[in-house]
Each structure stands twice: as structure tokens, then as C-alpha cells.
């Protein structure tokens, strides 16, 4: 067995250039895994020191502090103190050299754990341009950390940083008290520290002291946190100490944070020299345009249109090529293998499943390329700044705008894009309502239905009736998403935490390497985690639609009609008849669970029509001619509207469910989403059809 | 005379002041303190978003945006 390499963590504020520095240090040897129990990527890479030893560098999620409310945020402190994870030998804290006054707060929190620290003063070129000079020798002497200047984008300082890491990793951890705190607070921390050592949760006094401080800051009095691995006795004691302090008129949070910031201010006063009279920075000049009342709005609209255009049209050729390649492989296998159940499983189950997964890659890749560009350049934060007022009115975060907009294209990449939202509640809310946005896969359904139920050239005033209906569906989808957000925020996902504390970083040129790495990482995580679920569901649906087998010689229509799905269609007819749907539409809806546009091809099979698409005449004619057993027309305009409303609101998409499962980390939320969207769709369609029928709109 | 402390939300664009107290929900207050809005810190009002909210502050040499509702809980002098 090879011995486990010593671990060195890389921590830092968001926007500190941490990922770029991590990349510059390790090359492209990063491995991505998951922290146990949460959907946080654990990115690690080996670093070889000069004397040939191997160190495992682990990139921690970007954070302003170590305190936590959720299990995701708890990762940082657990990794630092080695709880359930290998204890680190040292920690690199990447610091934005221009904003030491804030960035040193995290450094102080890490130093307080006693683990050896290396400070990477990153973007020190930017700081120098802003007229900020830092006395690194003095900073090192005052903190006991190694201090290295770096410019990650140009790879400057990485060799010195690697040497400092090797040096720090060889130093022992310190248990000496590090911070000057009020006596009362010191007593509180000491009491909790003793209990932690007694419970043997941690055995190093320095680590126990840091964890005691963390508990006091992080645990919620009302039990509103979901932090794990805290013995009940320690939880009770922490809350008792907090209560005692509150009764004495003390604010423990304020005491802890203020004493750290006092230390920060002392350090900044001692080591930072500012040359006065630097000119107005580029960021400032850009911001006066980009967040301007009018100009800012115009730029915002143009950038968002561009993203939209890319998702909608630029991905189209790639998607078409993937689809034709999959069809080609299917034809090849069908020709090469003897007909039979195994060939069917391979062609219509496995290969179709792979196709169903890969087909999302162009859109995911493009969306994350754009998000990466916007995020790393600093504009994404301005998007949130400009649009937050509107988003807040329904309880959403400003950062939810780009994912919601992407939902018009496809919910799958859009749900993945919610990762740019920091708070878990805000993120969950966004991913639960975003599938209501009318995605491009619904379009073929709308086109088929409007073309079927409307007379050619039908008009509503000056507009064509089809355009009005289509517009109404898009409006309905936006209204439903916003209303659902407002309702869920007040019910299922209520509570505070819906705040905006947003850094507007300086505008910067993104690094191509980091951009490509991030896009690949998203695509990979989709393929591995969501892809397997999509694949499995494709095979299940294929089996539903093809078994039990009809006797040899029957056509595909008969086969489908007597399959499980066909029978299921008949079984649910009593439930969907009040919406105006018969069993054939029911089968189409079941088939559409693979992907909404499959509704069209499934209907075509039910109606015995060879290869159909949404603009196919025979399918429309067959639908127009279709009747209920009592001779009433099936596809009246009212049924059409009811069906479109159903498709706007229903969660008819296994891939969305798979990706929400991946991003929320549990089956609970995708199941909830499926349930509320289906109920909403059923209710709305029922309303449309029943009220419409009473008013006599369905006759004809 | 000035019995009631002024709120950060009332600071005019370009105006500076010193934080003296942060009030509100514990999680929000903790978050604001952690990004550096501790009592004694100098803040400058930089900009207001096109729709009137949120606001952009300069604090500890970085640009921080918070909503007016949170700024109302920050007393300044």
C-alpha cells in the first residue's frame, strides 16, 4: 500500500483568484470528487516538492469566513480541523492583496486553528497599481505565517509558493492562544474547549479552541442549522453559554468577530502603505456605465440576449449532429445484429439513453462558458446588482436571474447554473421553480397543437391566433414561475437568510485555462451523476413502451397500444378525461417523460403515422379526425389550450428530475417538485377545460 | 441633540460615515459583521442600483452591495 500523501488545503475569499492559483500550482492534474454527504466538489491535485515528496493540495470552496449554518458551509471547518477528513499539515490562504482589510479576516480565523499557514498575496500587481504597498516581511513576522506574493494569472510566484507550502507542511501545529479577546469570551471559549477535549471530539487544544469558537458562532439557538457531527452535550452547552452571555447583555457573535477584525486592523495599519491620489480606477469608470440607470439597462439587455441567443441557436448544430450520430449508430447496430429483444434493448434503450444524456452537453457547455466569462470578468455580480430589486419581489436572489433566463432554453443546464447562488435556500428555491420556464423542448408540442386546432390563417385581431396562443403560453410560464417562487418562499422554504451580501469585484480578464477547466468539470459532473439516472430512466421508459410484446406481425401502433404504457394510458383516462384528454394523449404524455418533444413522436406511433414531426400534415390530419367513442371531436381548440397549459406547467422531464436530484443531493426535492408541478398542471388544465366547456367554448 | 442615530440607508452618494451598530436577524447581522461591517469601520456610499435598490458601499477597500432593508439596520455616526 502506498502511504497517503499529506494534505494541504487551499482556502480563500470568492474572487480572490483562488482557482486560478490552484491551477497554476498544480497544472491540469486536478481530480474532482465529492465531499461525503453533500453536493460540494472536492477538487484535489498532487504537488511535488523540490525534494521529491508528494503533497495533496485540496481546493476548499471560496468563503469569507468559517462559520456555518448548513452542512455545505461546514465542510470548510471540518476539513481544517480534520473532522472525518484527513487533518491538513498546512493551509494556503489566497488573499486579494488589494483588499487585505477584509481578506485577513479569514486568515485570522485559519491562524486561530494553529495549523501552519501560507498567505498568498494574490493579484499583487493590481494592488501595486492601486498604490497599495505591503510589507510582507512584517506581515509574516506579526502572524507567524509564510507570506508569498503571487500573480496567478501570469503564474508569478508559484515556485516560491510551492516552496513555502513544503516548508509550512513540515512545521508542527501550534496550540498557543492567538487572539486577544475579552475576558468573558475567553472564559466561555475555555469552558467549551474543555468539554470538547473531554468528549474526545478533537485531541489538540488549539483545534478544540478553534472549534469552540466556531460552535459559538455557528450553532443556531432555534435549532435552525443543519450542522452534523456535534455531540448533543456540546450543542446544549454551547446554547447555554450563549444564553448566559445574552442574559448578561453580551453579544457573543459581535465579540468574536470584532476581536478578529481588531487584529486585522492592527495588521493592516502596520503593513499597508497607501500612496495617495491614485486616479479613478478602470472598474470605477466601467461601473459608471454598466450600472448606470439607462446605459446599464441597455448593456444588461444586450448581454442577456446574447446568452439567450447562444443557448437557443448556437447549440442547435451541435445538438442536431449528436442526434444524427446517435441515429446513425442505432441504424448500424440494428443492421448488424439479429432482430430480437437484445437488439431492441441496445438500440432503443442503451444507445437512445446515451443520446439522451450527451444531447445536453452543447447547452451545458455553452451556458457554463458564458457564466464563467461573466463571473470571472466580474459582470455576473453586476447582473445581480442591477436585477435584484425585481427578483426580490418574489423572494428570489439577484443571482437567480441568469439560471431563470436559461430555463427558457433548457432546465437541465439552468438547474446546474444555480450553483452561482451562495445560500442553499435561495438555490433550492430557484431550482424548484425554474422548470416552469417554458423550455425549447415544449415548442414542438405547442407547434403541433396550434397547427392542429387552429384553422390556417386564423387571426386574433392584427396578430395570428397561433402567435397569440404561443405568447400566452410563455407569459403563463413566467407568471407561474414567479408565483411559485413567491408561494414556496412563504411556505416550504421560508425563513431568513434571503439576504443579499454581494461583493462587486474589480473587472478582470478571465483566465482561459480556468474557464475551460470549469466547463469541463460541470460537463463531467453532469455526465457522471445526472447522466446515469437519465440513462436508467430511458431504459425503464423504453421497457414501458415496448413490453409486453405483441404477437409477431403487428404494427408499431398495435404494439404500443397493448404495451404497459398503452394500458397505463387507458388506466389514467378517467383521470385525464376531465382535462379533455383521451387515453391516446395519455400515452403521449407518458412518452413525453423522456423529453417533452417525444410527445409528438409517441402520438405519431399511437395514430399509426410513419415518422412524424411537429409540422407533419398526416399527424395533424389524424389528430383533427380523432374522436371520442361517442363521436365528439377530440382535438377541439379548448382541448388544445388545455393540453398546452398542461405542458407549460407539468414536470414532464426525467432529465430535469435527475439533475435536481444531483444538485440538491436528495430525492426529496425532485419528488416534491414533480408533485407540485403535476398538481399545478392538472388543476390549471382542469380549470381551463371545465370552465371553457361550461362557457360553450369546446363545441365544434 | 442627535438622540437617534442615523441609518446607513440615509447616507447620500459619496458620503462617508463610521458604523456604530448592526441590528437585525442574527444570521444577517453575523454575515454583515463577517464581511467587515464591524463597529468602528468606515463606509462610503458609492452607488444605487438602477431600480433604486440595492446599494453599493465601499468598505475596507472593496465594493460591497447590500439591500436597503439591511442598510436600515446599520447605525452610523
Structure, described:
The complex is a heterodimer of chains A (700) and B (77). Chain A has four domains: 7-169, Rossmann fold (3-Layer(aba) Sandwich); 183-274; 295-441 and 491-524, no CATH class; 525-694, no CATH class. Chain A is of the alpha/beta class. In chain A, a hairpin with a 6-residue loop joins strand 2 and strand 3 (41-48). In chain A, the strands form three sheets. In chain A, strands 2-3-4-1-5-6-8 form a seven-stranded mixed β-sheet, sandwiched between helices. Chain A has a two-stranded antiparallel sheet with strand order 7-9. Chain A is elongated. The mean pLDDT of chain A is 87. Chain A has 29 helices and twelve strands. Chain B has 77 residues and is α+β, with helices and mostly antiparallel strands. Chain B has one domain (6-76): SH3 type barrels (Roll), CATH 2.30.30.90. Helix content of chain B is 17%, strand content 38%. Chain B has helices at residues 26-34, 68-71; strands at 6-7, 16-22, 42-48, 55-59, 62-66, 74-76. Chain B has a six-stranded antiparallel β-sheet with strand order 1-6-2-3-4-5. Chain B is globular. The model of chain B has no long low-confidence stretch (mean pLDDT 90). The interface between A and B is large, with 49 and 35 residues.
Amino acid at each position: 500500500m502506498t502511504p497517503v500523501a499529506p494534505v494541504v488545503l487551499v482556502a480563500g475569499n470568492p474572487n480572490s483568484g483562488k482557482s486560478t492559483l490552484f491551477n497554476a500550482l498544480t497544472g491540469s492534474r486536478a481530480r474532482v470528487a465529492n465531499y461525503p454527504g453533500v453536493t460540494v466538489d472536492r477538487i484535489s491535485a498532487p504537488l511535488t516538492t523540490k525534494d521529491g515528496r508528494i503533497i495533496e493540495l485540496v481546493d476548499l470552496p471560496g468563503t469569507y469566513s468559517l462559520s456555518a449554518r448548513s452542512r455545505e458551509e461546514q465542510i470548510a471547518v471540518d476539513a481544517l480541523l480534520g473532522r472525518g477528513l484527513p487533518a491538513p499539515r498546512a493551509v494556503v490562504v489566497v488573499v486579494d492583496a488589494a483588499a487585505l482589510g477584509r481578506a485577513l479576516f479569514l486568515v485570522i480565523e485559519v491562524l486561530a486553528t494553529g495549523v501552519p499557514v501560507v498567505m498568498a498575496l494574490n493579484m499583487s500587481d493590481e494592488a501595486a497599481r492601486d498604490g497599495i504597498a505591503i510589507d510582507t516581511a512584517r506581515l509574516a513576522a506579526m502572524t507567524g505565517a509564510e507570506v508569498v506574493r503571487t500573480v496567478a494569472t501570469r503564474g508569478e510566484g508559484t515556485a516560491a509558493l510551492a516552496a513555502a507550502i513544503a516548508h509550512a507542511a513540515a512545521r508542527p501545529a501550534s496550540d498557543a492562544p492567538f487572539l486577544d479577546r475579552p475576558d468573558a469570551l475567553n472564559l466561555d471559549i475555555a469552558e467549551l474547549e474543555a468539554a470538547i477535549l473531554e468528549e474526545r471530539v478533537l485531541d489538540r487544544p488549539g483545534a478544540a479552541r478553534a472549534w469552540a469558537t466556531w460552535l459559538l458562532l455557528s450553532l443556531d439557538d432555534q435549532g435552525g442549522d443543519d450542522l452534523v457531527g456535534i455531540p448533543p452535550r456540546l450543542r446544549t452547552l454551547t446554547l447555554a453559554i450563549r444564553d448566559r452571555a445574552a442574559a448578561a447583555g453580551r453579544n457573543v457573535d459581535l465579540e468574536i468577530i470584532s476581536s478578529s477584525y481588531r487584529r486585522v486592523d492592527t495588521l493592516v495599519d502596520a503593513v499597508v502603505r497607501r500612496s495617495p491620489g491614485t486616479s479613478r480606477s478602470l472598474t470605477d469608470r466601467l461601473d459608471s456605465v454598466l450600472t448606470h440607470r439607462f446605459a446599464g439597462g441597455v448593456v444588461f439587455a444586450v448581454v442577456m440576449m446574447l446568452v439567450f441567443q447562444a443557448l437557443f441557436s448556437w447549440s442547435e448544430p451541435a445538438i442536431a449532429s449528436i442526434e444524427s450520430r446517435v441515429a446513425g449508430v442505432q441504424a448500424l447496430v440494428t443492421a448488424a445484429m439479429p432482430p430480437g429483444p437484445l437488439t431492441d434493448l441496445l438500440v432503443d434503450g442503451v444507445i437512445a439513453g446515451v443520446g439522451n444524456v450527451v444531447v445536453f452537453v452543447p447547452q451545458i457547455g455553452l451556458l457554463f462558458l458564458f457564466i464563467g466569462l461573466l463571473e470571472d470578468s466580474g459582470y455576473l455580480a453586476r447582473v445581480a446588482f442591477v436585477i435584484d430589486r425585481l427578483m426580490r419581489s418574489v423572494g428570489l436572489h439577484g443571482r437567480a436571474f441568469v439560471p431563470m433566463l436559461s430555463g427558457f432554453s433548457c432546465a437541465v443546464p439552468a438547474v446546474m447554473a444555480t450553483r452561482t447562488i451562495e445560500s442553499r435556500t435561495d438555490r433550492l428555491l430557484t431550482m424548484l421553480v425554474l422548470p416552469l420556464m417554458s423550455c425549447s423542448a415544449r415548442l414542438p408540442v405547442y407547434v403541433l397543437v396550434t397547427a392542429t386546432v387552429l384553422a390556417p390563417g386564423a387571426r386574433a385581431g392584427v396578430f395570428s391566433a397561433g402567435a397569440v396562443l404561443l405568447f400566452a403560453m410563455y407569459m403563463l410560464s413566467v407568471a407561474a414561475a414567479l408565483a411559485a417562487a413567491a408561494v414556496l418562499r412563504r411556505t416550504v422554504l421560508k425563513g431568513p437568510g434571503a439576504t443579499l451580501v454581494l461583493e462587486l469585484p474589480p473587472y478582470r480578464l478571465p483566465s482561459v485555462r480556468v474557464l475551460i477547466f470549469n466547463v469541463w468539470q460541470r460537463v463531467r459532473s453532469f455526465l457522471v451523476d445526472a447522466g446515469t439516472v437519465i440513462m436508467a430512466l430511458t431504459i425503464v421508459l423504453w421497457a414501458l413502451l415496448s413490453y409486453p410484446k405483441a404477437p409477431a406481425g403487428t404494427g408499431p401502433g398495435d404494439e404500443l397500444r397493448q404495451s404497459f404504457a398503452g394500458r397505463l394510458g387507458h388506466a389514467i383516462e378517467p383521470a385525464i378525461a376531465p382535462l379533455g384528454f383521451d387515453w391516446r394523449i395519455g400515452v403521449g404524455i407518458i412518452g413525453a417523460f423522456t423529453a417533452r418533444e417525444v410527445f409528438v413522436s409517441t402520438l405519431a406511433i399511437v395514430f399509426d403515422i410513419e415518422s412524424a414531426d411537429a409540422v407533419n400534415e398526416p399527424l395533424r390530419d389524424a389528430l383533427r379526425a380523432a374522436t371520442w367513442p361517442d363521436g365528439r371531436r377530440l382535438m377541439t381548440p379548448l382541448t388544445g389550450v388545455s393540453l398546452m397549459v398542461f405542458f407549460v406547467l407539468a414536470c414532464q422531464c426525467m432529465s430535469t428530475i435527475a439533475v435536481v436530484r444531483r444538485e440538491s443531493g436528495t430525492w426529496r426535492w425532485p419528488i416534491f417538485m414533480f408533485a407540485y408541478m403535476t398538481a399545478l398542471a392538472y388543476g390549471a388544465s382542469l380549470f381551463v377545460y371545465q370552465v371553457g366547456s361550461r362557457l360553450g367554448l369546446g363545441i365544434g | 441633540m442627535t438622540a437617534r442615530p442615523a441609518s446607513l440607508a440615509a447616507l447620500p452618494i459619496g458620503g462617508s460615515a463610521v458604523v456604530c451598530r448592526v441590528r437585525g436577524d442574527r444570521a444577517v447581522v453575523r454575515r454583515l459583521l463577517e464581511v467587515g461591517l464591524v463597529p468602528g469601520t468606515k463606509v462610503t456610499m458609492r452607488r444605487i442600483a438602477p431600480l433604486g435598490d440595492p446599494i453599493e458601499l465601499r468598505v475596507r477597500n472593496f465594493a460591497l452591495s447590500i439591500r436597503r432593508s439591511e442598510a436600515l439596520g446599520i447605525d452610523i455616526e
